[in-house]
Design a protein that fits this description.
Strand content: under 5%
Distance between the termini: 20 Å
Helix content: over 70%
Largest sheet: none
Number of helices: 3
Length: about 70
């Protein structure tokens, strides 16, 4: 996300609960990914979990970007 998108989220999150929820989901997933990536060793199940979290994070970011684009087009 670029600064323009972050500014848009900050400006509109309080008045748009869906945007706020999407942003919070993205942040939560980002923190979970960072936590697993910071481990010096990951078990095979953690590797699978990390891949799933990265996929979910990307999907959340895409949803968030789509929401931002739709709001800007209004």
């Amino acid at each position: 996300m670029d600064q323009r998108d972050l500014d848009f989220i900050a400006k509109n999150a309080e008045s748009d609960p869906d945007l706020k929820a999407a942003w919070e989901d993205h942040i939560l997933l980002k923190k979970q990914v960072e936590k697993l990536e910071s481990k010096p060793f990951r078990s095979p199940s953690e590797e699978v979990q990390l891949k799933q979290l990265k996929k979910q994070k990307l999907e959340a970011k895409t949803r968030l970007a789509d929401m931002i684009d739709a709001k800007r087009a209004q």
